[in-house]
Each structure stands twice: as structure tokens, then as C-alpha cells.
Design goal:
Blueprint: H1 4-8, H2 16-30, H3 39-55, H4 58-65, H5 79-87, E1 101-107, H6 111-114, E2 116-127, E3 136-140, E4 149-156, E5 159-166, E6 175-180, E7 189-200, E8 209-212, E9 218-219, E10 222-223, E11 226-232, E12 238-241, E13 244-251, H7 253-258, E14 260-266, E15 269-275, E16 284-287, E17 303-309, H8 317-330, H9 339-348
Parallel strand pairs: 1-11, 13-17
Antiparallel strand pairs: 2-7, 3-6, 4-5, 8-11, 9-10, 12-13, 14-15, 16-17
Helix pairs in contact: 2-3
Length: about 350
């Protein structure tokens, strides 16, 4: 007789909990998934399961201890079923659900102020009505008899062990197609245009995905999910930086020097702004609470006004005269009148 206690590395007085812990440790170490192609590990895994099948059963353990197990006893479980039972998961393959899908929706920046419900158009796979999702006329797979798996039995010293593998003929489906459906061409599903109503929450970030459960492709195990990616149309005046907005205010020289009262295009309407005299290029005015909402919060970001001085390229004679007078008054040296015209004429020669 094999020494099952030695195989599991426990003493003869080991408790059931100690036996289970030893089995868990060794089964994980020698599991075929962790040792692909390793025949020695595979045999060790079978030995460990054989030992545990006996020592975990008080009646079988008592018989074993008395040396009475000379003949095969009740058929033991499949190795992977036993492994699954100890580790708390199921080995049966659940029917696969449909694939997840992704769609894109465009909104305006203003829509993110309070959120908006939009309609998303997309295509998803649904069961073919012509063949009722069967793909055509099915027949039972002659190789596996419709089970989708092949079983092989091995008689051990203490029972029959069963191993299962996916049927190579039907790829685990349990059936073959005798006739292919002309509508879906054997796929069992066809594409259909769908529309879904989606609520865009306030302040949602661009390119983030919004999950819509159950609106993906339909599969044997149920539908997948639809993920909606948000795209924001460019705003004519405002730029987005998270929950903050940026507006680039172009000021003329006189406005920057003397001060001005301007209006800023906010999301809810024009916002008056007093520009103090002597404002320089690149200065920033911050308007708290005039940005976008923070996702999931009531507070809003700020609207930052960045000043950009606008230098005129074409001046009337009167404007040039006034600017020269200004430069003389403040002591700024400028090019003499007609200087650049004479310079261009020189190079033409």
C-alpha cells in the first residue's frame, strides 16, 4: 500500500484540517496548469488527489489505517472536481456571455454643466431569427455523444479516476452543423442596428467610458455590456482643463494700458470683467465657480482668463501720429517715420 500520509507530508495523527491544508498546498504546487507539459508533476498531482480522497473521508481513512483497503472502493471524484471542491470553485464551464461593445457619442461643452441624456446608435449581434440562433440544422456530435467532453477512466488502487478533455471534433459544443443557415452562415448571430438612451453625468471627462449593462452582443450566457466613450465638440471660445475652463482674452494696447470693461463668454452666459489699468500680457484672472462641475460633486471649477495683448498690424496715419506722440511722451525710442519703407526700397535696388 502507498503511504498516503507520507504523500501529503503529515503524520498519522494529523487532524482533518491539517490534512486539508497539506492537500491545498501540494495541489497548488503540482497542479497541471502551473506545470504545463511536466509529466512528473502530473503524476504527483494524481497521487496527492488519490491520497486526499482517502484520508479526507473518515470511513475510508479508518479502513486504510487498519490495512483493509485491498480492493477498489466507491468511485472517487474527478481530480479537478475534487480540487475545485476543496478550493471553492466550480469546474463546469458556464455558457459564455456576449462580447462587450464600445460606441462614441459627441456632446457640447455646455452639456456637461448639468448633464444630458443622449441617444447612442450602434450595431450589436443578436440571435439569428431564421435558425433561432442554432446556426443551422444541428446533429449530435458522434465523438462525444453530445457531451462536449471526452472522459477517460483510470483504475487506481482505491477507486476509478476520471479525466476530462474538450472534444476535438465539436470543440466542446456537443453538436455539429449538418446544414448551415444561409442567413447567418452558421454563426447563429446577425448584426442589428440598436439605439440606447444614455445619461451623461455633469462634468464627465472626455474619453472616459460609461457602462451600459446588458446592451452588448447577445450570447448563450446572456448579453455583454455597452461602453460609451464621450467626445466633446470644440468650443469656439473656451478650452477645458479638467474641471477648469480657459478663455484667452485679446486686449488692445489702449485697453491694457488704460483698463477696460469686457464680457467673458461663460457656459451660462456672458460674465462681466473689469480689467485694471496696466494689465500685462500673460496675466490671469480667475473666476471661481464658473468652470465645470467636478464629477460626482456639487462644486465647480474656475474659469481662468488669460490676457493676450493684440498688437495692430495696420494703422491709419492718425493712429501712427498718436502713437509717436505717446512714445515721445513716455521716452520710448521708435523707428523714424518712413524708415522701413526706405529700407525695403534699398534692398530692391
Amino acid at each position: 500500500m502507498k503511504d498516503y500520509y507520507a504523500i501529503l507530508g503529515v503524520g498519522r495523527e494529523a487532524t482533518q484540517e491539517e490534512i486539508k491544508k497539506a492537500y491545498r498546498r501540494l495541489a497548488l504546487q503540482y497542479h497541471p496548469d502551473r506545470n504545463p507539459g511536466d509529466k512528473e508533476a502530473e503524476e504527483r498531482f494524481k497521487e496527492i488527489n488519490e491520497a486526499y480522497a482517502v484520508l479526507s473521508d473518515p470511513e475510508k481513512r479508518a479502513q486504510y489505517n487498519r490495512g483493509l483497503l485491498g480492493e477498489p472502493v466507491l468511485r472517487t471524484e474527478n481530480l479537478f472536481d475534487l480540487f475545485a471542491q476543496v478550493f471553492g470553485f466550480r469546474t463546469g464551464r458556464a455558457a459564455p456571455r456576449g462580447e462587450d461593445l464600445e460606441a462614441q457619442v459627441e456632446v457640447d461643452l455646455e452639456d456637461l454643466l448639468k448633464g444630458k441624456e443622449v441617444e447612442v446608435a450602434y450595431a450589436r449581434l443578436v440571435p439569428c431569427e431564421a435558425c433561432h440562433g442554432q446556426g443551422g440544422r444541428r446533429v449530435v456530435c458522434p465523438t462525444c455523444g453530445g457531451k462536449g467532453v471526452l472522459e477517460s477512466y483510470r483504475q487506481g488502487l482505491f477507486g476509478a479516476f476520471v479525466t476530462r478533455s474538450t472534444c476535438p471534433h465539436c470543440k466542446g459544443q456537443g453538436h455539429l452543423l449538418a446544414e448551415t443557415c444561409p442567413v447567418c452562415r452558421g454563426r447563429g448571430r446577425v448584426a442589428r442596428e440598436e439605439r440606447a438612451r444614455v445619461r451623461i453625468p455633469p462634468g464627465m471627462d472626455e474619453n472616459h467610458l460609461l457602462r451600459v449593462p446588458g446592451h452588448g452582443n447577445l450570447g448563450p450566457g446572456g448579453p455583454g455590456d455597452l461602453y460609451v466613450r464621450l467626445k466633446i465638440r470644440p468650443h469656439p471660445h473656451l478650452e477645458r482643463e479638467g474641471a477648469d475652463l480657459v478663455y484667452r482674452l485679446k486686449l488692445g494696447l489702449a485697453q491694457a494700458a488704460l483698463g477696460a470693461r469686457v464680457e467673458i463668454p461663460g457656459l451660462s452666459g456672458p460674465i462681466p470683467l473689469e480689467v485694471p489699468p496696466g494689465t500685462g500680457h500673460g496675466e490671469v484672472f480667475e473666476l471661481p465657480g464658473e468652470g465645470l462641475p467636478y464629477p460626482g460633486e456639487a462644486r465647480r471649477g474656475a474659469l481662468r482668463v488669460v490676457v493676450e495683448l493684440s498688437v495692430p498690424k495696420h494703422l491709419s496715419p492718425k493712429a501712427k501720429e498718436l502713437l509717436r506722440a505717446y512714445a515721445k511722451e513716455v521716452g520710448e525710442e521708435v523707428a523714424p517715420e518712413g524708415f522701413f519703407e526706405r529700407l525695403r526700397g534699398f534692398f530692391r535696388k
